[in-house]
Amino acid sequence: MLPLLLLTSEACALPDTVSQSLKEAGIPLENVAIEVRRVDGQKSLLSLNADRPMNPASTMKLLTTFAGLDLLGPAYTWKSEAYLDGELKDGVLYGNLVLKGYGDPKLTIEQFWLWLSELRARGLREIRGNLLLDRSFFEIAPANPGAFDNDPMRAYNVPPDALLLNFNTLHLRYVPEKKGLKIVSIPSQDTVKLENRLTLDAARLNCDHWDDNIQVQMEDDIVIFQGKYPVVCGEREQHLSLLPHLRNVDILFRSLWLELGGILKGKLYEGTASSNAMLFSSHYSEPLSTMIRDINKYSNNVMARQLFLTLGTTSAPDNPLPATIGRSKKVLQDWLKKQQLDLPELVLENGAGLSRNERISAAHLAQLLQKAAVHVYSAEFMASLPILGVDGSVKKRLKQSTATAQAHLKTGTLEGVKTLAGYVRAQEGKQWILVFLINHPNAKYGQAAQDAMIEWLHGQ
Predict the structure, then answer these.
(1) What pLDDT, on the 0 to 100 scale, is given for residue 9?
(2) How far apart are the C-alpha atoms of 244 and 105, rounded to whole Å?
(3) 310/442 same-domain check
């Protein structure tokens, strides 16, 4: 066992390797909160500033996904509906097609294509009216996607939407060729033009940050790429949010509908179906148990925000009210009380951790993980967490360590925040809960300390 640095007279000791790594990173102990306890124990093995409210970054998703499993169930699915607002005759709709969303977090291009294929199979070919999008199930204020960090094109900044299509992003692929670099959009379409001004860079770079020297800007319907592309990194993919939501849906619908042999005569508007409209088709998402794997393993912010808003509709299941941030906060606070979890320091904003305001203590996050470990859906919850050295956000961490594949851990990263929370299996088979929160300007250098803690705990 590694030597320990005793911090107080209580059960609050820090391994020398951890304290040394924090010192080398320039992170004072007062800016760190740690809680370590057995899954089935009430006492802490190690506790440092564990009652202090801290910014959890994406480890807040643990609360949102666990509550989602308990309140909605692992088999819960989101629906999207298509209404015919007019007469359908011989494949021609003399009226509007209305698409209504209920917050599906993962209505991807592939899923949308399948749904539109079904509309074609049901007999709809030509739409003589308009395409109406009903997004009224989410009652949220218009959001500036660049408000968080002034980087509105990043996929993690996409705001939630009742009819979110393909995460409101454009899927791009960079393909190095002998004569230069080719950029393609998926699916290919003619409405948005790609203007490639990139040059190939032969320098050997860290491909974890391959896009650092690429600048993208949007002018009308032209996407302009400038900078250098590291040829050593080969083919790479990128998802960027370049278009307003309605414009994105309009482009994707027309592209896929045309590909399927369909015709749309009118334009796209935001609206609702009339009282005479007929429900034509309902599309259902993947189950929640699958959704939370994307949310936790890959820290998908907009999916977490979609789930967070959906939780607010559970207060009246027989007559679900439109989703609001306020209703979601109320439902989660009521749920915590039923779980006998008293979290007075908890601050919720969007349930994803993409926030400067959200707060929770290490001790209470550990208590939440204890509840999840003995829950009837504990297997589904555990399976949603990244496996150390294997997949998700911890795929590249401690790959050569004996702790590899012996921990399920959710990570969180913001400017000035680096966090870790989950489960670590010791060599003797004991299961430990680890919460390690860093809030400090040097937080990005704190990974070595967190890794040292994982290895120490695995060796217990």
Answers:
(1) 33
(2) 17
(3) yes
Residue 71, both tokens: 């309140």
pLDDT digit string (tens) for 207-229? Answer: 888 888 899 988 888 999 999 99
Give a yes or no: residue 305 inside a domain.
yes
Give CA–CA dist 270/292, Å, rounded. Answer: 29
Same domain, 326 and 383: yes
Range of the domain at 215: 170-240
Bridge partners, residue 425, by sequence: 431
Distance CA 98, CA 81 (A): 8
> Among residues 195, 232, 211, 198, which one has the least CA distance to residue 153?
211
Domain count, the chain: 3
